[in-house]
Design goal:
GO terms for molecular function: 4-alpha-hydroxytetrahydrobiopterin dehydratase activity. The chain is α+β, with helices and mostly antiparallel strands and 99 residues long. The protein has one domain: Transcriptional coactivator/pterin dehydratase (Gyrase A, domain 2). Helices cover 43% and strands 19% of the residues. It starts with 6 loop residues before the first helix and ends with a helix. Bound molecules: 7,8-dihydrobiopterin. 7,8-dihydrobiopterin is lined by residues 56-58, 74-76.
């Protein structure tokens, strides 16, 4: 069972996660990605979905046209764990390759 990060550890991890912030009032992290167009946004989601499935760790996300809003938290642990940090890093890498 993966454990929730302490507030301190979460803040430290966020320093390495460009564009991600804590969610107000919830033990979760979020980032809104804006792409060139829908095609690129959906391409991002497709690639991120494969990473999520492979790591058995899934995002809460919302896509409107070229924007993808992502919230990460580990439901089984009730808050942010290392799994969320890893998936956020992977998403940043995918977005950087597309941008
Ligand atoms: N994704 N974000 C998130 N949090 C979870 O707890 C989680 C998940 N994906 C799959 C998953 N848990 C399963 O391992 C459990 O539901 C069995």
């Amino acid at each position: 069972m993966v454990e929730r990060l302490t507030a301190e550890a979460r803040k430290t991890a966020l320093k390495e996660l460009s564009g991600w912030t804590e969610v107000a009032g919830r033990d979760a992290i979020e980032r809104t990605f804006v792409f060139k167009d829908f095609n690129e946004a959906f391409g991002f989601m497709g690639r991120a979905a494969l990473v999520a499935e492979k790591s058995d760790h899934h995002p809460e996300w919302r896509n409107v046209y070229k924007t993808v809003e992502v919230v990460l938290s580990t439901h089984d642990a009730g808050g942010v764990t290392q799994r969320d940090i890893e998936l956020a890093k992977a998403m940043n890498a995918i977005a950087a390759q597309l941008g």
